[in-house]
Amino acid sequence: LPPEEQPAFTDDLQFRGLDDMHDQSVRYLGNLPEGTRLAWAGQSVTNGQLIRATRILQHLERAKPTTQATKNLMNRHFKVLCVDPDGHVPSNRHMLVTGFYQPNFAGSLTRSSPFLYPVYVLPDSLMVQNNGRKETIYRLTDGVVRPLWTRREIERGNLLVGREMVWLVDPFDVFVLHVQGSAILHLSDGSRRGIHYAQSNGRTYQSIGAYLVNTGRMYRADVTMDSSRDYIRRHAQERDLILHQNNSFIFFHWSEAGPTVGNLGQSLTAGRSIAVDHRWYPPGGLADLDSRQPVCVDGVMIGWKRLQRLVSVQDTGSALVGSGRVDVFWGSGEQDGRVAERMKKDGSLFLLIPKEGKPEQRRTAAGSGVLLGVCQTSSRNRSQKSGKDLATQSAPSIITPGTRSPATAKLMAMRWSS
Fold it and tell me: DSSP secondary structure string, 157-171?
């Protein structure tokens, strides 16, 4: 993008959290073999280039230059891009920006009242075929390949007896755990344990928020995670009917009761880490995000304010298809969840790709960034995330999107209305 079309590169967080964000990306990138190329939008960038870009930004941030000096330095060192899969420039630059978080729940390792609703580990029959671009999930029964069961089949048929790992108090808590993909559990024996996404049943996610709206049970503007929970609490006889609209079912594994971990295997930084489609944005890459965010006081939303800051690509998910979706990690716990569930706004994401060549060459190239198109999306295309691995191909080593993540499969709370 030419300089006049680029963001201002201001930071509404006053640069808080940037060092943590950068360190996590560098740790991931530094663990890759030297010269690994990370594929994005039909192109690729080396892990060394992204590490260098991160170090450049750290130096700029610590120097605290003026806004104009920052723009000049960014143009000297980076190509500022918006990615569009069709390779053309649409009439606007907006994408959908949502939020996600890590919840906290009470749980028990044994089934006893009030802990009656199970969370499961992977079933023995689950099989995964992964070709590096697409993942197929199925079960093998007597040598016959069959689809894995739906949520309704699993819960009504009690098909996973013996695979329980923990029990929660509320079936809606289990559902939220499935859509967020990770949580901290406060167990009845006084201990704390982390729980993370292991795999899904491969079924397509269906929004219960959309069902509540389409069946006239709620108005779209009123649908949030809390309002959906409240509706089901007041209409308990409809609980299974509503929750079973979502065929997707998630299996889990134990993890450390520490920071939320993204699909790069690194801790996420609240307000800085984003989840996007890695086919369009390279893992560990840097970007500038411009949108608006909710302002909440004591859990009550009182308005909106500008969100404009540097972020890093540190997570992904199957809901994030194409260049026009970005999910911002807000943190852990109830308060962060209340902000995340209300985060649903248009925005712009500007990808920062380091320029190649010597500094003198980059100086003459300042402002001549390549325009690949502009990010677009519609609020109709929001669905549950399922996690993704990164598969390394043969030399030259190129990282391309796969299908598994320890912390994804999450659906941000604002997606209840999709």
Answer: HTTTTT-EEEEES-H
Q: How far apart are CA 162 and CA 104, in angstroms?
A: 25
Give the burial class of 34: count Cβ atoms within 10 A of its Cβ; 0-12 exposed, 13-18 middle, 19 or more buried. Answer: exposed
* Rounded Cα–Cα distance for residues 30 and 55 (Å): 12
Looking at residue 97, its pLDDT comes to 92
CA distance 164 to 251: 10
Which H/E stretch holds residue 30? Answer: helix 18-30
Sign of CA dihedral 238, 243, 245, 247: negative
> Which uninterrupted H or E stretch holds 250?
strand 250-255
CA torsion angle for 67, 72, 76, 81 (degrees, to 10)? Answer: 70
d(CA 19, CA 146): 47
At 122-161, the pLDDT tens digits run 999 898 887 666 678 989 888 888 999 999 999 999 999 9
Find the helix packing angle between 47-63 and 67-77, rounded to 10°.
160
Distance CA(181)–CA(199), nearest Å, equals 10
Q: Tell me which amino acid residue 225 is.
A: M
Does residue 387 surpass a pLDDT of 50?
Answer: no
C-alpha pair distances (Å), 129 with each of 69, 82, 293, 399: 50, 33, 39, 18
**Contact indicator for 273, 262 with CB cutoff of 8 Å:** yes
The Cβ of residue 138 has, within 10 Å, a number of other Cβ atoms equal to: 17
Which pairing describes strands 37-40 and 398-401: parallel, antiparallel, or unpaired?
A: parallel
pTM (predicted TM-score): 0.76
Q: Are 166 and 118 in contact (CB under 8 A)?
A: yes
pLDDT tens-digit profile of 173-219?
A: 999 999 888 899 999 999 999 998 888 898 988 889 999 999 999 99
Residue with tokens 């198109």: 373
Kind plus residue range of the DSSP H or E element containing 62: helix 47-63
Helix runs in 158-260, H state only: 171-180, 208-214, 225-234, 239-243
Q: How do strand 300-315 and strand 325-332 relate by DSSP bridges? A: unpaired
**Residues linked to residue 204 through DSSP beta bridges, in sequence order:** none
Q: What are phi and psi of 330, to 5 degrees?
A: -105, -15
DSSP state of 205: P
